[in-house]
Amino acid sequence: TLFANAQRLGIKIIAPVLCDIHDFKGPRCHRVLFDAPCSGWGVVGKNSDLRWSKSKKDSLNLAETQGRLLRHAATLVNPGGVLVYSTCTIIRDENDQVVEEFLLERRDFTIDSAAKTFPKELVNERGFVKTYPDFENLDGGFCVRLKKRLLRLAQVESVYVPGFYDAETRKPVIDGVPEKIIARHTLKLQPEYYPSRPIVPLTEITHDRVTVEIMRGCPQRCRFCQASRIYRPVRLRSIDDIKKQVMANLKATGHDEVGLLSLSTSDYPDIDRLTSTLVMALEPKKIALSLPSLRPG
Ligand code: SF4
């Protein structure tokens, strides 16, 4: 038994509780190992009577029990925690099938592949560990490490985790996540949000220039335009902030062109003064000024 083995090995941190898993009242845990009751076909070499005492139907019945118990074991795992499912059988119905069905239902769990820790001969393409006697004379067995993640993140206001929502109805498919995602906006475009030393690629790129945001959102609200709705409200940067960033970025990068970035640059209310201020600063250095996203008319 677990208790006898722990005593034999001198392990004192195990406190066995004998009960039906459904009646277990302990706290949720960061690590849960669910060693499922199984047909035992992985150790048939040691239990040869299995050939006569077990049938295919037993595996199918067990798969139903394993799935139910695995779902319950999952309720004992903390957000961010780990659930390991293991068996000593090689029957896919009791292993892969149980886990795949569980993952379809519990989208907050993902497979944490065993490829990082087990020899590659034992890990399949899904990240499951499968052992067979033809490798190092091991018993047949199965285990998979499942991580419960993203749930805590999805509970932060304004964070949207697509896997937790039905794509058609947009309703949550798991408990504990908000019905509606509230959009969050930066109300002021502070200078510290922008890099003073942007990365310069080693290759020549299409927009090979210093790019400086001057406005977020667009006041025009054309009916076909998603961006103007997504990036509401309109927020402007001051000419002084823009000029300081332009000069700092040019000094740090050596670019010879500056692009002013926004959804619709010509809708920046003080565009005349902005461009003339920048032209006066850039012209003596022979640096070009580019205004993409201009709205005609
Ligand atoms: S001007 Fe451009 S960015 Fe602004 S709403 Fe119209 S299409 Fe969208």
Automatic annotation (TrEMBL):
Q: What is this protein called?
A: SAM-dependent MTase RsmB/NOP-type domain-containing protein
The record ties this protein, via InterPro entries, to: MeTrfase_RsmB-F_NOP2_cat (IPR049560), MeTrfase_RsmB-F_NOP2_dom (IPR001678), RCMT (IPR023267), rSAM (IPR007197), rSAM_sf (IPR058240), SAM-dependent_MTases_sf (IPR029063)
Record keywords, A-Z = Methyltransferase, RNA-binding, S-adenosyl-L-methionine, Transferase
GO BP, one annotated term: RNA methylation
The UniProt GO MF terms for this protein read:
iron-sulfur cluster binding; RNA binding; RNA methyltransferase activity
Coiled-coil residues are none
Which residues belong to any copy of the SAM-dependent MTase RsmB/NOP-type domain?
A: 1-149
